[in-house]
Design brief:
Length: 210
Amino acid sequence: MAKALAGETGLNFIAISVPILFSKWLGESEKALHQIFKKAKQSAPCILFFDEIDTLGATRHVTSEGAAAVERVVSQFFNELDNLTDLSQVIVLGATNREDILDPALTRSGRLDYVIPFPVSDENDRLEIFQVHLREKPLASDVNLAELVRSTEGMVASQIAFVCRSAAMQAISERIRDPEKGRSEKFSINAAHFHEAIRMVQEREGRSAC
């Protein structure tokens, strides 16, 4: 969504994965964060996107090892946000699936104070997502989008995108393993490829929940 926003508005786009900011060397993380905001200002008008923002803006009541380093980085982040003005022309966005652990100071007025929830996709949403990702892919006659939509209940857009990519890769792998079939049959992605891809997602999510 952040990339789409940048594309629609024509703004420059800088994406940061927050976990990679942290360094074991004293002061390096704060320096890196300052450089990111400096680059965003130089690229203005710009959208600065922080993925996994909960890693950076989690509640700071922590007593574990490394808490002091995290505290310094969080403080630096808040300072950088506070130093932005309308003239900076930098829009800061963050994404998280753990809103419950965000530091209230992060979402106070003047910082990341506008929250847009993204609920799990419903049937109509999932159908549109499949249509987008399969728009120019060769589908076999046994592929039923309505059935795929029902089979992916509870999945989000990224998981459905993975299902589409994985199904396509399975079809390509089969063609490589069986070149004779490739010469006699037109290449296509069939229902079995999709069902296997969906099973992979479901098994992976099942392990993550354990």
